[in-house]
Amino acid sequence: MQLSRATSQSGFTLIEVLVAVVVLGIGLTGMAGLQIVSIRGSQQAYERTQASFLAYDIMDRMRVNLAAARAGDYDTALDEDVSALDLCFGASANCTPAEFADHDRRTWRQSVNDHLPGGLASVATATVAGQVQATVSVQWISADSELVDGDIVPQQLDMVVSL
Description:
Elements: H1 14-64, H2 66-70, H3 97-115, E1 120-128, E2 131-140, E3 146-148, E4 151-153, E5 155-162
Antiparallel strand pairs: 1-2, 2-5, 3-4
Helix pairs in contact: 1-3
């Protein structure tokens, strides 16, 4: 009987497979982390875009009703309850500029509340060097809002327009 020589091994050893699995797991974990950061960034961009859109919305409404805007009828504080303001719309409504401004304030603030988490907004007009300027502020609570002394600091977008 003749003994055969040991042949060389072909294929992978168990240790090589385990190392490959660990490297693959680390890579997939890193990709999942990048995906989470990407989604968070997309959400922040979406919220800022909505805030900008809403600020331009009230500015356009003010330009349409310029007399009321210059008279300060669009001025609204962040914490003001506008739900009691009358809605004035339709061809037969015969709204005054002030009533139309109330309608715009109520529908706009509702849109801010609907489109942004914890959404609040304000409008302030002031005369600067003979020119009426409106400052529109939109605030919302974002997932990355900071905590300062136990209070959430909201995100804020401010825009100034001359009327």
